[in-house]
Amino acid sequence: MKVRELSLEEFTAFSSATLSFVTGINVFLGENGTGKSQVMKVLYALLRAGAELFHRGPQPTTVQSEEVRRQFEGMFKPDKGRLSSLLRRQREHGALTQLRMATDQGDVDLYLTGEPASAQVGAWAWAAAPEALFFPTFDLLAAYTGFTQTYDQFQTSFDRTFYDFCKALGRLELSQSATRGWTPARRQDLLRQVQRLLGGSVHREQEQFFVELGGQRYEAPLVAEGLRKIASLEQLIKTGAIHGESILLWDEPETNLNPQITVHLAGLLHEMAKAGVQIFLTTHDYFLSRKLSLLEGVEIRFFSFLRDSESGAVRIESSLDLADLPNPIIDQFERLYEESLDRFNDRMAASGEGEA
To answer: Are 303 and 318 within 8 A, CB to CB?
Structure first.
């Protein structure tokens, strides 16, 4: 399954926005608080609900609506489950909050109404179950032990993406021949690329992960957080949580990574997209976004999230060319470069050697 489009009306910071996606890599750019992660969670909540409902078989719309509500509560964690918190605060009286996701296997319309808001969906009959994974910014390889049990038994502030991610890490590893969407050789090639980037490999023993680096074996909490993120990616490919027919939503992949690894990670994501994975990611990183813009062979679309200073609403511009969009990441790099150049020229002038 591939997601083709998402429309949002009067939802959180969005008055009206439509995003048309590519089957390769979709990159969300923008300042903090412009709704990038919220869009990712909307996509994931609808895909997770679709997967649950597909496996149950035909269900009345009341059951469908309840499942969607459950997923949205889990992803966004509104106070006391009030979905009304997700309605745009500045909407006009009577304006309806509506979300619509279109896929190549079927569409879904979601309405949030009332106070507190209730979820209502239209007829939902997809031809296949979506398989999506949300990769959160926070590392979970070191926190894996006991996480899902604690989540099941107690109220926590962690949203559902963390729980689902831990469940995916804990799946049994697939045999080399049990692959989907790519050949065993393709899967093994991707695993080797991840292991080269990691400089080792990851292994699970009962309820704990270990990472082998430089011929030494380390408990996951003793490994640098950025490397644990790469190790998690390896484990997710091993278990089949990421495969050639899946959808990966990754919130700020660059977190805790140095620029050298970030650039190589961009290339790895590009290879995964070539192998059939549809990818959505948010980023504030110059190196990741710039490297992706230079890669060829996979369609990559960039989305710039921009907040209107007067209305507070967020609009979204998109392009296949990063250079066509307003980009706060590049703007800040240019300002820093100019500041550095001015500082250099001031020093040269003070020493009597003239400007650069």
So the answer is: yes
For 164-186, what is each residue's pLDDT tens digit?
A: 999 999 998 877 666 677 888 89
Angstrom distance (rounded) from CA 250 to CA 239: 18
Whole-number Å distance between alpha carbons of 222 and 241:
25
The Cα–Cα gap between 158 and 167 comes to: 14
Q: How far apart are CA 161 and CA 199, in angstroms?
A: 27
Alpha carbon 101 to chain centroid, angstroms: 16
pTM higher than 0.85: yes
Residues 6+ apart with CB under 8 A from 352: none
d(CA 271, CA 196): 14
Q: What is the DSSP letter of 21?
A: P
Tell me the two tokens of residue 231.
């190790």
Three-class secondary structure of residue 29 per DSSP: strand
Structure tokens given for 122 = 């239209």
